[in-house]
Structure formats: C-alpha cells, structure tokens
Amino acid sequence: MTRTDTASPALELDDLSVAYHVRGRDLPVLSNVTLTIRRGEAYGLVGESGSGKSTVALALQRVLPANGRISGGHARVAGKDVATLGSAALRQMRARDVAMVFQDPGKALNPSLTVGRQMAEVFEILGAAGKERYRRGEEMLGRVRISDPARVMASFPHQLSGGMQQRVVIAMALAKDPALLILDEPTTGLDATIEAEVLDLVDTLRQEFGAAILFISHNLAAVASLCSRVGVLYAGRLVEEGPARALFADPRHPYTAGLLRCLPRAGFKGGPALDNIPGFPPPPGSITRGCVFAPRCGLAEERCRAEEPPLYAIGSGRGSRCHFHDRVDDLPRMSEPPQVNSPERGPNVEPVLKLEHLSKTYKLPGDRRVQALRDVSLSLAPGETLGLVGESGSGKSTLANLVLGLAEHDAGGRISLDGTAIAPSVHARPREAVKSVQIVFQNPDSALNRAHTVKHLIGRAVERLAGVGGAERDGRVKRLLEAVRLTPRQLPAKPRQLSGGMKQRVAVARAFAADPRVIVCDEPTSALDVSVQSAILNLLTELQAERQVSYILISHDLGVVRHLSDRIAVMYLGRLMEIGPARSVLQGPHHPYTEALLSAAPTVTGERGTRIKLEGQIPSPVNPPTGCVFNTRCPRKFAKICETEEPGFAPDAEGHAIRCHLPREKLGRGRTGPGAPAAAETAASG
Amino acid sequence: MGPAFGRFLLRRLGLSLLTLWLVSVVVFLGAQVLPGDPGRAILGPLADQRAVAALNKELGADRPPVEVYVSWVGDMLKGDMGQSYAYRAPVAPFVGDALVKSLKLVGVIFLIVVPLGVGAGVIAALNAGRPLDRIISVASLSLTVIPEFVSAIALILVFAVILRWLPLSATWPEGAGPLTQLQYLILPALPLVIVLFGYIARMARAGTAEALASDYTRTAVLKGLPWRTVMTRHVLRNALVPTITVIAAQTGYALGGLVVVETLFRYQGIGNLVLSAAKAKDFAMLQAGILTIGAFFIVATLIADCITVMLNPRLRAEMGG
C-alpha cells in the first residue's frame, strides 16, 4: 500500500454542493463551498446550528444520511476525490487518511467493548498482528497524555470521565496518523478546565503528528484559540474566510460582524450592550435570488436582493461574500440596548434572599455520606445578579435545588426570603414563597411539556402561582408574552413548532408568571446559538431592570457570568471558595482556583495567557482532602498549613471573601494583570 | 464475576423463592380452600354425605387448611407431589413426562421464532423507512394479535388437512427418533411462533435502528472497518441485548401459553395436563402442574435477569464483576 502523495492539500473542497431529498424535493444544504486546508494546518469552520457545518464533515467522508448526496463539485481528501472512490478504496481512505472526533465522546465509544478492544481495532485494520495491536493502542493512549494507559485499556467507556473519554477518542483518531483530523464540537459539554486541556492537547498533537485539523464549532473563542484560518458558514454558503485573528478582529461580512457583537466580551454588567441578529436563518432552498443574508442584514440594499455576491477576494488571504465588504464597520446596531438596573445592596436594605450555613448531605449505600454542599452562607440583594461558577460536581446545582426547595437542606441551615425563614421543602412553603422563587432551565426542550400549547404552558403557571383565572389570567399571559418579545401568534403553538430561542422565551415567561423575587437561571443559554444567546441575555437584563428581580446565574461560560453578574461566587467540592463583587473576583486578587478557571477560558482574540493547569482529578466529595479542599490541585500550595487547616473566609470592606491561606497581596490577579508574575514567584519560593 | 455478582444472584434467588412460595399459596387457595369442600366438589351435589366425608378423609381435606397446606408443601419439598385422585397413582411421573414434552415444544418454538424474528427485525432496521421495513412491521404487528386458537385452526386446515404436509396430531408414534418428533412438533409450534414473532421482531428492529444511528457505529464505519465487522462487533452486539432479555423472559410465558395449543393438537404437555386435571377435579395434579409452570416461569425470568447483567458491562461493573 503506497501512502498518498504529501504534495496535495489535506482537504480540498471545490465548489461542493450537498442536497437532502425531503418529501420529493432536493433541498440544498451546502452550496458551492470552496476551501482548502493545507497539510498540518488548523482550520476552523464556524456557524450557527443548521448552517451546514456538520454536513461538510459527513460529505467529505461520504457518510451522509441516506437521503443526502453530493449534488455538485468535488471533495478531495489528501488528493483523492471521495465521490469517485469504490467501496474498498473508500474504506482505505477512512482507515488511513481521515479521522473524526464527535461532540459527545460517551456516545462515540461502543459501550459494550473495552477501550483496549476499540483501540486495537484501528491497528487491526492497518494490518497489525494480535498482540501488536494492543501494544500500539496502549502506546497511543500514552501519547494523548493518559498517565495509566494499561488501566484505561482494560476499562469500559462508562468507567472513564468525560475528559478521559475524549482523550481516548482523540487517540483512536490519531492512531492512524491521518492527513486530516475532523473535530466536530469536541469540547461542547465539557467543563471549561477540561475544554482547555483538550484544546491544548489537540494543538500539541497537531504539531507532533503533522495532521491537518478541521475544527467545527459554534464556539468562536475555542476556534480562535486553536485555528490559524477560519471559514464562516451561513445557510450552506461560505460567507467569509481568512486568517483567524484578522477575521475576528476586523470582520468583513455583516454576518461575522453580527456574531461577534453577540458575544459577551470583556465588559462587566452595565458595560457595552450585546447586539443580536434579528430573524432566523432561511430554510434551505427558500432564497433563490440575491444574498442569503440580505433579509437579516443591516447593510442590505436593492442590489443584495437581486444579485448574489461572489466570494470577493479582499487581500491578505481573505474573502467575503458581501457586495459591501468595505462598509461592514458601518453596520448599524440591530437591536435596542437593554436598560440595566443597579441592585439595592446596602446596610439598610433587607436582602431578598439570605442563606445561612446551608449544607446538604446525601447518604450512600454502605453507610457512607457525601456532602454535596457544606456550610454555604450568602445573601442576594433586590435586583442583584449572583453568578455561580465552578466545575461539574462543585455543588452549584445542589445549591440551586436547595434554594428552590427541590432538595431539603440539612438541619442547622436557614433560608430566608425577605427576612422571613422558609421551609426547606417546596411542599411545605406557602404559595407566596413558592411563586417568589422560580427557575429557568438549561434545556427548554425538556423543561416544556411537548403536549401543551404556549398559551396553556404560561396560563397554567399564572393560574397556579398567581392564583388568577379567566380574563385576568389571559390578560397576564398576553402581557408576559409581550415582555418576552413573543407575539399572540405563538399562543396556539406547541413547543416543537418553536425555535430554541423562542422556547427559552416561553420558559422565561413562565418563570415570570407571578412577580417572582428570585429566579435561578441554570445555564440558561448554553444550549443556544450565540445570536439567540445574546437576545436571551438582553431579555433577562431588561426584565431585571423593569422588575428589580434577582438572579442566581449558574453558567460555565465566564463571559456570560461577567456580562450579567453584580457579584460572583466560586464553588469547589460543595464549598464557597470565593465570593465578592464581580469586578473584584475577576480582576483579582482572587483565589488560585478562580485564577485557574479564568486562565482556562479561551477568548475570541485568540490570545492565550499562560494556562494554569490543574493537576489531577477533582477529588471525591465522599473523601474530601483535609485542610483546604483545593490543596490537592492547587498550583499555589505553599506550606503544610494548606493540608491541615481549612482557611478562613472573612470578607473585606467590599464584601470580597477568599478562602485561601495566602495573604491577598500574594494572590493572583486577572491574566494580564501586573500582579500575576510577582505573585507566582513568591508562591514558588514560599 | 466478583462477589457482588454472587450477592446479586443470592438476592435474586431469595426473591425467586419468595415468589414461588406466594404462587404455592395462591395455588393452594384456588384449588383447595375456595371450593370449600373438595370431596363434594369431586363427587357432585347428589353424592351421599358419608361418601363425601370419606373422600375428604382420604384426601386429607378434613383437616384444617393450614395443616393441609403445611403437609402439602412438606411433601413437595421432599419431591412427593402427592397422589392423583383420577389415576390413583403418584402425580410426579405425570408432571415430569408432561414437562419434558412441553419443553420439547417450547424448544421447537424458539428454534423457529428466534432466528426468524431477530432476522426480520434486523432486516427491517437496515431498510428503515423503505417498503420492506413497512411490510415487516405491519406483518409482525398483525400476526401478534391473532389468537393462538384462530391461527392453529387455520394452520391445521391448510397444512394437515388440505396440503397434508404435516401430521394433524402432535403425538408421535412410540419410539420415534428426534427428527420424526420434530416433524410432529412443527405444526403445534407455529401458532405461538406467530404470536412471539411480532414481539421479537419489533424489539430487534428498535434495538438495531438505535445502534445503527449511534455515534459509535459511525465511529466504527469511519475507522474503515468492513461492513460485516461493523454489523457484528458494533451494531448487533449492542442492538440485541434487550432482545435477548425479552426472549429469555418469553420462554416462561410460552410454557404457560401452551394450554390452548396442546389441547387443540392433543399433545400431552403440561398445559394439557393442567387443563384435564382441572376438568377431572384432580386437585393434587392441578396444584403440582401449576406450581411447576410457576417454577419454570420464575427460573426463566431469573436466567433472563442474569443474562441482562452479563451482557451489559455497566450493570456488570455495578455488580463489581
């Protein structure tokens, strides 16, 4: 078997079109996409759901669904036109030239075979002998920095953590030393710290293996941190292409510009408002004349609706499918900036919610106990947003459930609403208290009953919580609908007839059904596209300004937390590690754990400060470390005291408390802050 | 298999014994206590009261029910199933013979229906949405709802009476070899094959369709594995776990469902035995027969559970194996 010539590019899409056959019609999903990925290059393909980015990956490996076909153009992987390959040659191409990593590593691994068996399979196809396959599989696991490859080889997929599973999938993909590695949303669903690790790993391995990378993602920041070139896909067309930094810093297509304006970036609450992109992407095949983006574009003119723009070459390797690519800077704001409130925090104001010494212990079989939450005290002022951050298992959701009364806190704790203590269980709380504390879930699909109409969903909440019926209820439903920017046309719709953003609006409307005082927002936008996310974030901001409601915002996206929060609490292993005003927490001095979380978050500018790697796994909450619970992973651990004594948690004048033995002047600051290197030095010498 | 699997097995065994005990109570209540006066039930309303009393004494039914129950269970535990009133002979050999015959029939049923049902389900899934899938799905559903006695009569008419391909009765001549026995058993097996076919085919189709659409199957295809390997190692291995569980659980059901078929085909299996014992008011035989069916059902379910645990690495791991 001869290896493919290395002169041809890793991937060449030449005027590629793909159509899906639906109800007797061919719907174009990709139209005339042309792009080239050189050997060893990392290329990012971004776009919202439905833009066709995953179709690119499926088409170039010829694994389109049964009703899909390449309707025009060519896709060449390492010089081979995939459409013309016979079945043996196609298998050869899949076995040697191209590999793919899917979004959810837990699903990409066969649940009933050991990791070893699945690793060995890759070498089996390449013709290795029995024992050799396992030896090389184990070696490959070592190369993706798995410290105990023999144990992992013998494990079944479900016995590994998400991050570890993704490493195994990446190892399987790289084992064949492919010319092209496709990563389809590889870090969605992973914690920020693990996402950062995976991205770092991919970057290192790309250099070691010399594989080209096609990185498909809706996460612009992740793309910016890994890729040198980027293509932006909209409604099946490549609308802009260019070097990553230049493209994100100076977009030349109004769609790219719009997406970037949707991203919560450096600003704090009250800073620059997010914009959004009005309307929806067109259904495939619905726009046959002119520019596909024209209906949503703030620069569109008559010419845009009549004449489809070609991909204009605009110098320095960039291209834009916009007639007015030189006027993108003039793109007007597409949405009203929302009103922003300020919280009523002060010594004379009663906090709306006060948690005192909340703990939650779960019993495990065998008389073991796990403390999901330990001694958490905090308060929430009227109109205030408290951002809650921490990795999975840190206790964020447990805290939310205790506040909502869905789980009961241990004896000795106390939850007060407007100064009155309320029962731990929601069933024992008076209606007044129940309606005052509401929730918006992450996934509106599973939070809304599919069998009911929008009218019923919101109306029922009004009835139950506000205790009104008839005309008054209908009036309230209408007002709520207006408040969340839906129209009466949506009243008879069922959830499946609504887009993801609309569904989340219905969920927000339901939470606001009866003048709530506190709303727990649990990852309210992480299932949504960027443009929809910004609209929901603006909506939450505006509703808060109107009603002076308080939010507890749980999110792993630090950009979102920064944009909305007045105060931020950082949790680890069920404990509060840090709490304080958003600015103080994010800019520092802050807890070493906060510092690590912040350093893990990629930014769209593509610059990466030194990433602070957290060693090892999160310890088991059944058996938490002694002393400071973070000491087993802390890069700034400096003395025996970290292992023996739990640090105090006294707030300073601003209400900023840090659970760390290090004095404040030695703690880290924001990643570009001047204090960081000095602090690192002291920590190292200490 | 580690010690946890042993504990799981022990717990399941304990539960099975408990179930069996409950079955014995229900059987006892149904056969002995509810008729009130077994002797009267047997001899009829016109019989002389002294004859009834004598029979009750012979049956041991003149004692308090609890005492009767305890001695019955004690005898059963010793392997003594009691005396048949109708045959004036020990029950055990009858039940043993009938059980062996029924198991043969069940064996033939599953020999036919498992490959057929699983095959049809997998083929349907591979052709999902196409006409072949529709045909298999509709056919399997329609077949499932046909009661055994309807299909049995139709089958007898076609294959035994009109075409004369298969013998009408299920009882083979004395000393017939296994192949001849098989020939006699095919026709009686078919009605239950028809009922079970739809069930198994639908399970197999659902499992296969899910596995085919999974990311791990896509990953396997994209490894460049040949289609055959993808199917056997990745698709079927995961797709058929629930089907295998269902099949194992159905063996118990099939044994209980044999009454109609065995009667129609005059086959001396356990179903027929129970039915004629009920007609003859042969309570010892009835109790022993039903208890045997119950025990078989429980054993089949236990085996099904063990298979499920052994096929699923996640459950196996929770068992500590």
From TrEMBL, chain A:
For this UniProt record, the keywords arranged alphabetically read as follows: ATP-binding, Cell membrane, Membrane, Nucleotide-binding, Transport
> What are the subcellular locations of this protein?
Cell inner membrane
Instruction: Determine if ATP-binding is one of this entry's keywords.
Output: yes
Write down the Pfam families for this protein, in alphabetical order.
ABC_tran, oligo_HPY
User: Does Cell membrane count among this protein's keywords?
Assistant: yes
The organism sits in which domain of life? Answer: Bacteria
Topology in the lipid bilayer: Peripheral membrane protein
Task: Give the CDD domains listed for this entry.
Answer: ABC_NikE_OppD_transporters
Signal sequence range? none
Recorded GO molecular functions are: ATP binding
Q: Where is this region: Disordered?
A: 664-686
Instruction: Give residue ranges for domain ABC transporter.
Output: 11-260, 353-598
**Composition bias type Low complexity, residue spans:** 674-686
Which SMART domains did the record assign? AAA
User: Which Gene3D superfamilies would you find in this protein's record?
Assistant: P-loop containing nucleotide triphosphate hydrolases
Q: Which PANTHER family match?
A: DIPEPTIDE TRANSPORT ATP-BINDING PROTEIN DPPD (PTHR43297:SF2), OLIGOPEPTIDE TRANSPORT ATP-BINDING PROTEIN APPD (PTHR43297)
Q: Which family does this protein fall into?
A: Belongs to the ABC transporter superfamily.
The name this protein goes by in its record: ABC transporter ATP-binding protein
